[in-house]
């Protein structure tokens, strides 16, 4: 459990403001350091074989100007691909999302650290008015990214990769989900969120990611 919670604590979370082609956006920003060379981290976020191990299987024309599809429904266009420092994609979910192009983007920035490590930053921008935000706040996407980046860290460290669904159901995974939801609530408060709304969003996010056992 300690190793998992250490990974959770290693992440710096910020809710901010930005823009997407459809207009003003809110952002969830995750920053941390990985003890791996920048080329290794770049390969892990662009190689289909390694993406399948920490994210989900990804198919498509994986180059700048191409398109991609993640198993489960996420899909979009590859907007920028500048090895080994910058990857930017549009990020849509479900068939209905194609009716609202330009509403969500994910950008990953890498920078070499001073000791052969890598500074990692992921920014997910979603248009203001995105339907899940009033209920879940930044935890709607933030907890999911925390879970995925935990697995990316294990991949880069050469550790065993656990099944996402099995991990999320385990006591360790459930505690991770609760603490991640609370951490995104703190980021929401720091960004000026109303305390009552933030508390309700954290509760809803926790129930979504850590449902009562059946």
TrEMBL record:
Residues 35-127 form the Activator of Hsp90 ATPase homologue 1/2-like C-terminal domain. Gene3D superfamilies: 3.30.530.20. It comes from the Bacteria. Belongs to the AHA1 family. This is Activator of Hsp90 ATPase homologue 1/2-like C-terminal domain-containing protein. It comes from Amycolatopsis antarctica.
